[in-house]
Fold each of these.
Amino acid sequence: MNREEMAEVLEKIALLLELKGENPFKVRAYRQGAEIVLSMEEDVVELAKNDELKGIKGIGEALRDKIGEMAKTGGLEFYDKLKSEFPETVFEIFEVQGLGPKKIKAMYDTLGVDSLVKLKAACEEGKVAELPGFGKKTQEKILEGMAANEKFADRFTLGSIGALVEGMLETLRLHPEVFRVAVAGSYRRAKETVGDLDFLVATKEGARVCKDFTTLPQVDAVIVCGETKASVRLKNGMYCDLRAVTNAEFPFALQYFTGSKEHNVALRSLALKKGWSLNEYGLNPVDEKTQRPEVKDEKDIYRLLGLQYVEPELRENRGEIEAAAEDKLPRLVELMNLRGTFHNHTTESDGRDTLEGMVEEAMELGLQYLGISDHSKSSAYAGGLDAERLLKQVETIRLLEETLGGFRIFAGSEVDILMDGSLDFPDEILEQLDFTVASVHNFGKLDEARMTERICRAMENEHVTMLGHVTGRLLLKRDSYPVDHARIIDCAAATRTVIELNCSPMRLDMDWRWWKRARDKGVLCSINPDAHSRERLHHIGVGVRVARKGWLRREDVLNTRSAKEIEAFLKTPKGER
Ligand code: DGT
Ligand code: CA
Ligand code: CA
Ligand code: ZN
């Protein structure tokens, strides 16, 4: 058992004890234990194996024994027994958003709710609203929470699974019977969320590779394991397919399983028109007398069909095949083109790392400049800065910059767009900054027209360099507030305001479907990590993939410019940019 698994067991014990109505102190001890196990600096599994947990604050004797048992045996008898007192389905309820242990217990005790099915029925019959302390509103909230879970069930954000996927690819690559490896599907196409993972290997020993795949440490359960295909569920709940093909089939399988389905359908019909039958195993002439062409990789397939190579990110059947036929595909931006990045937070507002730490990381990433934009005062929940603190920060930034040997820090603010479209700071303050990102954080209940109006008004301000996270969406959690993208893009073009591609994994906002339109109207994109810690600066990598998905070229992205060019850009009045 690893640390995360141990913590999960302890957390579940706490939940079940609470349902049983056990002593709250006992419940809290398990919950605290879970946190300590997760956050301890030392290797808690190693310590527990060697009975060296004594003296650690917050871990009493009972907990110590249980952690020890888990570390040594990989299981916990106490937990198994406790679990057997409840149906498996009770854990489903704990996944519902906005539903805490107290409410769950009340419904369990009085209504016998121990599964999602029963919870839904109880809500729909109005029984939940009648419980003391619940009411109609709570009942509705629970139903909404369940609907959100169903709607977003079993998808993962692109930005959160990179390390997992790379790790599995690396292991597969090292397998002695594997010639070639790739991950296909929506992950390869850089969709903002991914349903299941689709791995592909070229091998002569399909059965063996499939079997070995099912024993990877990331695997939780095996669903299918055959000669050419394996399906598993990973420990994070994600489903994952592996297909084993021959080396000759590999390019075709990779092309097919990369998708999208719509792209494939269009490509196949184009192939037919040209006298080819294309499927996941090969490209065959319809006329049997014609010779089969030699295909070594995906590029050959597109070439034989008379097309430019179509990068995976573009394969959504949104005009890429037509453009490829006319040699008009854009040369897409690449990570190595980025010279710096804007919109980053520090401990001055809600960031986890200091200004110095953020700068250090940016330098390690090989960037030439970093834009700092902490929250403004109306975002009090995030420790937003008032004018005085902001100007003090600007001073600190200027001083620090002098010690950095040419690395530039651009001093800015993520200034709140207030309800009427005015900004959280007056122009006299904003003009002392190098740049500003203007963002909506307080949605109110504005309809689409008024929200759009509000945002456009902010962009009209001379000091607003860029618009932050256009729709405020949180992937898999919260839908966007209503906005008219087309109008916002027009307004950005008219006011020469940059639009941010916020590449925090939860956001990826503005959505990739709108970038080509923005680009065609001459609107610049800034790939911004909205980093609240050093590590999250690395999200610019995911941002670049989404920018590519939006057909963006190097020249469409502001932060591919050098520090010098940025300096000049920021000094030029907006109307002349
Ligand atoms: P996901 O997993 O929901 O995020 O999306 P994908 O695109 O990864 O879809 P998935 O895993 O169902 O299938 C992987 C690829 O395989 C898909 O993008 C295209 C191809 N594919 C799957 N089923 C079909 C099909 O019925 N027809 C065609 N033409 N291609 C298919
Ligand atoms: Ca997939
Ligand atoms: Ca799949
Ligand atoms: Zn923000």
Amino acid sequence: MTSALMQNYGSPELEFERGEGSFLYTIEGERYLDFAMGIAVNSLGHCHPKLVDALTRQANILWHTSNLYRISQSETLARQLVQHSFADRVFFSNSGTEAVECGFKMIRRYFHNRGQSQRKRIIAMSGSFHGRTLAAIAAAANPAHCEGFLQGDTGFDQAKFGDLDSLSNTITADTAAVILEPIQGEGGICVAEKDYLLGVKGLCEQHDLVLMFDEVQCGIARTGSLYAHEQLGVNPDILASAKGLGGGFPIGACLATEELASALSPGTHGSTFGGNPLATAVGSAVITEVTTESFLSNVRQLGSYLKAELEKLVTQYPQHLNRVTGLGLFIGLVCEIDAAELIERLQQEKLLLVKAGDNSIRWLPALNVSREEIDSALTILTKVLSDW
Ligand code: PLP
């Protein structure tokens, strides 16, 4: 039967019926080892019992009331995020791109409230990705995403990621803020150097700019700290979070300091579903799990192990593989051979991975993946490479 869906995702054929931990199962019962995890979404694997419990318990009590009323589950999750981060306040949405949008609106309103409405330009970085709303594609300015949607001045400027001179040369009197992913995801897993981030912070302070981080993909313990920037030594004023926060249930969060958050006074922003009891009950269970030191250190250890093993394969297969990038369990394998074709062959061997922009493969296993599951994935990769 022809699909009634819009064709923006093409027509993928592979379908899964159920998931458990690191595995997905087709209707025919075929088992796949999932190292894509919904593109860094299922942070605790599929159907983690504590998340199923949080969701079903809440589903039996109350699904939705709206932000016209107090939602204690969202208060609790906001408190947890504040306790574990630089932030003083949180706004909940339903996706990463909405979390980014909240940050953009906060920035503009902040300068507007200061009587500097002309300061509304935001600088984003080359190779970045911030989602698919008009503002998000305008920020990242990826031509493939903008074609037919935007033309002329969008209010965003772009600097070269990793290049302080480029940023410095892009700042004007109308610049309000800088947004960047401390570790880029879609563009290829690319970790910002500590010195670069310190330099960005310095330029922001010098020019009175707001610094916003997009940790939609690299956040929620993926790198071995709740947010990646904690390991890179620089705090932002605003941070967008989503994906892993709901462990598979849709939720986004925009975190901010009191100074910035106060720009969103009552009535200035909102979302019908943002902060709903189901999403925030699950998010709370995720944060409780991923913020213990033992959980975080395990992510760091497993990440170091996977990275070291992949590096061995790079040495063994220099015609096929180029290098390994990333931090914790946010790992990129840059290929010499076509990454899409390698992913296809790995999928035939029942290992799921995701491509990134620079002909690389993203390794995004569940954060509670086992050493044995990592070894199984490496065995499959080794087999596919040796048969290439
Ligand atoms: N920002 C980053 C860094 C992302 O990786 C993504 C999604 O891949 C987004 C924003 C957009 O998130 P969503 O697809 O939930 O809107």
